[in-house]
Specification:
This protein has about 140 residues and is of the alpha+beta class. The chain is built from 3 helices and 8 strands; from the N terminus they run E-E-H-E-E-H-H-E-E-E-E.
């Protein structure tokens, strides 16, 4: 069985943002040489997420508004976690959006459904964070 590991690094300028990382994951799949197996992609920070959805600007704006309603950033005083850092909302948003995705690899390709893409979601930006790609298979 083959195994391939790669870290992607991101530094989103604003507090929040979504980045389509499908091309980078596909490039690592090609590098790995795996034709049949699994690809794990996970955020290595507790205030960031990796998720699968459609690459559509309106949907991303809807996600942003929905998450802000669920866990508004301000007032910071509404959260018991906030003290040293004012990022409790980012922890909650990550809990909703998830830590990782696993995608089947079939015939050397990510086995997606229609319109599916992999995204990095940042909820407490302006600092360097990483995403792990782990590919295993034959």
């Amino acid at each position: 069985m083959k195994s391939h590991r790669k870290e992607l690094w991101f530094e989103i300028e604003g507090r929040r943002g979504f980045v389509n990382i499908t091309p980078q994951v596909e490039a690592e799949l090609r590098t790995s040489g795996v034709r049949e197996g699994l690809c794990l992609v996970n955020a290595m920070h507790i205030t960031a997420s990796v998720f699968i959805n459609d690459d559509e600007r309106g949907l991303h704006a809807d996600l942003e508004r929905w998450l802000e309603k669920l866990a508004p950033e301000k007032p910071h005083s509404q959260y018991a976690h906030n003290g040293y850092e004012d990022n409790a909302d980012a922890h909650l948003k990550r809990s909703v959006m998830g830590r990782e995705v696993v995608v089947a690899i079939t015939e050397g390709r990510l086995d997606f459904g229609p319109w599916e893409q992999i995204f990095y979601g940042e909820f407490d930006g302006a600092r360097r964070k990483r995403v792990l790609i782990k590919i295993i298979g034959e």
